[in-house]
Automatic annotation (TrEMBL):
Family: Belongs to the RNase PH family.
Gene Ontology CC: cytoplasmic exosome (RNase complex); nuclear exosome (RNase complex)
Major place of residence: cytoplasm
Gene: EXOSC9
Protein name: Exosome complex component RRP45
Keyword set, alphabetical order: Cytoplasm, Nucleus, RNA-binding
């Protein structure tokens, strides 16, 4: 799909706001967006969110034959998925210019910068080595895509565990995680990328630009640094002419950012490891499910968040409120608070007296007793009358009484009266 164009009015508005150290999302030019890092329940999965930019990284491994040039070293491959789900401008099955650029930068960080020990991935020299595959999926692209993808890839590499193996003479046995614990990769350092947008004047720097801001800027300078104050890589997009002072300013800011992000990644990995050791089970991406109400558009810049890490909640004990009742029935809650019920006038007092009188009458009246069910007594009376008639009348002159559905005796007109079998037995026993 064609990229949504940026109107001249919107471009002028964004540039004028940047000139006054203001941005459309509420940040200043030297502030970052909120960064969230989450690791999954499976080893080697991570999700990183920087504002509206979301990137998912997945690490996998397999045993392959090494290349002829480096037979004693493993291999690291990077695959980027720029699906249309991330942005309408992405095409399915095609990387495009942005996808190719992202792939090259990630390969430079994870393979060429020496972040991973490749010699430790060798099983048999010039025969079998481990091949590490990094799959990066762009879920949503809203500026600073290289920054978010680099953090996701490095976090996934540090979180990954490869299976343990036993090298025999002719074969290699790969053990499952049930038999032998997986082995983590050897990570020497964590290079973190930081993007700096350069304004058209070539002097103003915009840190962590959004997608709309990148369309207004002249280009972007990407600085990769680690917590040891080392510059791992430099990359730029667009035709930029930068002076030494501006580059040094960007480098100092990138080093400080790398220290903060590396500490955040370490906290996330340590918390995940502790949960696995205790047997609590990792939360994974289920921690992203929340019932928070979406309010107005807000921005909290320069904030690093680890959603899955347990935080020490502050518990505040509830203090009992002081309740005071005056002579007129007015209730005061707390100190210095106004009355809960305002003083009533003559009409309200008369109404309250009527309500109290009605309530008093209802309480004085005794409860109404329900009449008892006399069905059993009526049945006994009918049986006694029938027995007396049986004793007075001759045998065969009475017929049994028929009872209707409502319990009353019914007898057809001009019908001879007969006694039932029970009555005849009673008559025979009579003297």
């Amino acid at each position: 799909m064609r990229e949504e164009p940026l109107s001249n009015c919107e471009k002028e508005f964004i540039l004028s706001a940047l000139a006054e150290n203001l941005r459309t999302d509420g940040r200043k030019c030297d502030e970052f967006r909120v960064l969230k890092v989450i690791v999954g329940a499976e080893f080697g999965t991570s999700l990183v969110m920087a504002g509206n930019t979301k990137v998912l990284a997945k690490i996998s491994c397999c045993i392959v034959e090494p290349k002829s040039a480096r037979g004693n070293m493993g291999a690291v491959e990077v695959h980027v998925d720029m699906s249309p789900m991330g942005s309408p401008t992405h095409e399915d099955g095609r990387l495009g210019a942005r996808g190719i650029e992202l792939t090259r930068v990630l390969e430079m960080l994870c393979r060429d910068c020496g972040a991973v020990d490749l010699e430790a991935l060798c099983l048999t020299a010039y025969k079998k080595v481990w091949q590490i595959r990094i799959d990066v999926h762009v879920l949503q692209a809203d500026g600073a895509l290289i920054d978010c993808a680099s953090v996701a890839a490095i976090t996934a590499l540090a979180h990954f565990r490869r299976p343990d193996v036993t090298v025999l003479t002719d074969t290699i046995l790969v053990h499952s995680s049930d038999k032998k614990a997986p082995i983590p990769l050897t990570i020497y350092h964590m290079p973190i990328c930081v993007s700096f947008g350069i304004a058209p004047d070539g002097e103003q720097v915009v840190i962590d630009p959004t997608e709309r801001e990148e369309m207004c800027l002249q280009g972007t300078l990407v600085v990769a640094a680690n917590k040891r104050h080392e510059i791992c890589a430099l990359h730029q997009t667009g035709n930029l002419l930068l002076n030494e002072q501006l580059i040094m300013r960007c480098v100092d800011s990138a080093i400080q950012r790398a220290v903060d992000v590396t500490e955040l990644i370490s906290v996330v990995l340590t918390d995940d490891n502790n949960k696995r050791v205790k047997g609590d089970g990792p939360i994974g991406f289920a921690g992203l499910i929340s019932l928070d109400m979406l309010t107005s558009h807000q921005c909290e810049p320069n904030e690093l968040i680890a959603p899955a890490v347990d935080s020490n909640a502050i518990s505040v004990e509830p203090q009992p409120e002081k309740v005071t009742v005056t002579e007129k029935g007015i209730v005061h809650i707390g100190e210095g608070s106004g009355p809960l019920l305002a003083e009533s006038g003559p009409q309200e007092e008369e109404l309250m007296e009527q309500v109290e009188a009605i309530a008093a009458v209802n309480t004085e009246q005794p409860p109404i007793e329900r009449p008892k069910d006399n069905t059993n007594s009526a049945q006994e009376l009918l049986e006694s009358i029938e027995e007396e008639l049986a004793l007075l009348l001759p045998e065969g002159s009475m017929r049994p009484l028929q009872r209707t559905s409502n319990g009353q005796n019914a007898q057809p007109d001009n019908a001879p009266v007969q006694l039932s079998a029970a009555v005849r037995k009673t008559k025979k026993k009579a003297p």
